[in-house]
Amino acid sequence: MNIESYDLAITDSMMHLLLMADPDEREVRDYLDGASILIVKDLNKLIGIAVLVNRDNRYELKNIAVHEGYQGKGIAKHLIMEIRSLAKKQGAVELFVGTGNSSLIQLSLYQKCGFRMSYIKTGFFADYPEPIYENGIQCIDMVVLCAKL
Ligand code: COA
């Protein structure tokens, strides 16, 4: 699997993936400014992306997404291990990631990649215009996980 860093303009296919993880395009564009981006390609097709953001020395995996046709093959696990190394190279000692209380796949993925639950932003998603449901559970709280690097 070939993971590359990317520092050119965001393409439509990249934005499509990024919006799978975070539907607020304005917010996505905001945190992409100054972020480190890793991509995975299958030949020339973009199949995965991950975004590392450093704000005031707080490092966060802000976005990760894998194309639907390529999920379940370990691509996200590889991307996260590369993001961990990159954050460490940049001087991070901790890496945070936030996800919904109902995001069971993501909670499993992050814990398998060495993250532990750190704290909860209670009611973080409660005021979203449309309620979000996953796995039959309403997404209301953000679970913040942290990996020691
Ligand atoms: N059902 C249950 N668990 C699953 C799963 C599924 N369909 N797909 C992945 N997982 C979990 C498993 O714990 C898996 O570990 P295992 O292989 O040891 O069972 C772990 O995730 C890693 O799987 P991997 O193949 O590396 O993940 P992926 O490449 O399919 O990508 C996401 C996972 C979450 C990035 C992908 O589903 C995605 O892009 N979802 C939409 C965007 C998103 O939700 N991003 C995260 C926002 S917080």
Overall description:
The chain has 149 residues and is of the alpha+beta class. The protein is 28% helix and 37% strand. The protein contains 4 helices and 9 strands, in the order E-H-H-E-E-E-H-E-H-E-E-E-E. Strand 4, helix 3 and strand 5 form a beta-alpha-beta unit. The longest helix has 15 residues, at 75-89. The protein is globular. The model has no long low-confidence stretch (mean pLDDT 96). The chain binds coenzyme A. Coenzyme A (COA) binds at residues 20-21, 64-66, 71-77, 99, 103, 105-106, 108-109, 112.
Mean pLDDT: 96
Oligomer: single chain
- Morphology: globular
Low-confidence stretches: none
Number of strands: 9
Could you say which small molecules are bound to this protein? coenzyme A
Helix content: 25-40%
The end-to-end distance, rounded to whole angstroms, is: 23 Å
Number of helices: 4
For the largest beta sheet, what order do the strands appear in spatially? Answer: 1-2-3-4-5-9-6
Strand content: 35-45%
Secondary-structure topology with pairs:
Layout: E1 3-6, H1 12-21, H2 25-32, E2 36-42, E3 45-55, E4 58-66, H3 75-89, E5 94-100, H4 104-112, E6 116-121, E7 133-134, E8 137-138, E9 142-148
Parallel strand pairs: 4-5
Antiparallel strand pairs: 1-2, 2-3, 3-4, 5-9, 6-9, 7-8
Bound molecules: coenzyme A (COA).
Which descriptors would you attach to this protein?
globular; alpha+beta; 37% strand; binds coenzyme A; two-stranded antiparallel sheet; single chain; 28% helix; 7-stranded mixed sheet; 4 helices; 149 residues
